[in-house]
Amino acid sequence: MSSSISPNARRWLNTIAFAEGTWGEGAPRYDITFGYTPIKDLSKHPDRVVQGGKYSSAAAGAYQFMPETWARAQRALGLKDFGPQSQDLAALQLLRWRGVDPDRDPLTRENIAKVANEWASLPTMEGRSAYGQPVKSFDTLKKFAESQGASYATPASSAPTQSPAEAEVLKYLLLNKFIDIVGKQPATAGQTQLPRGLEAPPLPSYDDEVNTATQSELDLILKSYKDQQEQEAYRKAVEEQQINDVNKNLIAAESAKSQLLAQALGAFGAPKSVI
Fold first, then answer.
1. Pick from 60, 88, 59, 93: which is nearest to 76 by CA?
2. CA 20 to chain centre
3. 8 Å CB contact between 60 and 74
């Protein structure tokens, strides 16, 4: 797994640390928990709740990872510890999962709002914390980001380009790995065979450290697939609830009908037999 971090990505990381209150002496503090309790062992997330003022949290590290958030990023990236490099890579992955490319996307108001649900100290478009906690203003974050060396926005033209052959190979890897994990092909996918003349590379293992870029793309595909499953499950649940409501109404109507009939019989007396 490459440890190289672009200037734009480093600016994102530093700004998040600044917003989360873990910025100190020109660098993020990787060894503190919420409430500024020192972390003595960075071999793993400390996973303990700490009281800080009127709040309590199990967040830890430079980017204040919650235990479950850290576990998800750790599994996706195959991280071995809770050290500085691992924390940097995990935070960048969280940005990507929220739709921000840390290598290219500038720290605009809109991009920061995209990740406000990940970090409580970052402002939504309304300028508030998504969790009702203290928040840094966009102007404050922008000023800090601009102090971090490189220009405020990295031009999109600096993004690496991909040849058509490389794009086809990546597509082949992603689709086949998706099938390998999920067990079937995505509904929107095209062919999974490489065009003639392109050599089929071996499928990477999901935790293969030399295929980080491929894994990141795969994570997005799998997340989309999971979202579709959840939406389908929700649709079915709504339909079942509607059917249940109709059945309940029918039962209630039958019950009301029976009660009215009983009341009528009570008012007029039971019918007498005619001989």
1. 93
2. 18
3. no
Q: Concatenate the DSSP letters of all residues of 143-200 into one string.
A: HHHHTSSS-SS--GGGSPP--HHHHHHHHHHHHHHHHHHHSS--TT----SPPTTPPP
Q: Could you read off the pLDDT of 178-197 as tens digits, one per residue?
A: 666 666 655 555 555 544 55
Distance (Å, whole) CA 44 – CA 53: 25
Q: From the centroid of its chain, how far is CA 199?
A: 34
pTM of the model: 0.55
**Tokens for 164?**
């058509």
Count Cα neighbours of 107 within 13 Å in the Cβ-side half-sphere. 29
What tens digit of pLDDT does each residue of 106-140 get?
Answer: 999 999 999 999 999 999 999 999 988 889 999 99
Q: Are 35 and 50 in contact (CB under 8 A)?
A: yes
The contacts of residue 124 (CB under 8 Å, 6+ apart) are 113, 116, 130
- Alpha-carbon separation of residue 241 from 134, 229, 251, 254 (angstroms): 40, 18, 15, 20
d(CA 207, CA 75): 8
Are 11 and 102 a contacting pair, CB within 8 Å? Answer: no
Q: How far apart are CA 73 and CA 15, in angstroms?
A: 20
For the chain, domains (ranges, CATH) are 7-155 (1.10.530.10), 164-225 (no CATH)
Give yes or no for a contact between 116 and 133, defined as CB atoms under 8 angstroms apart: no
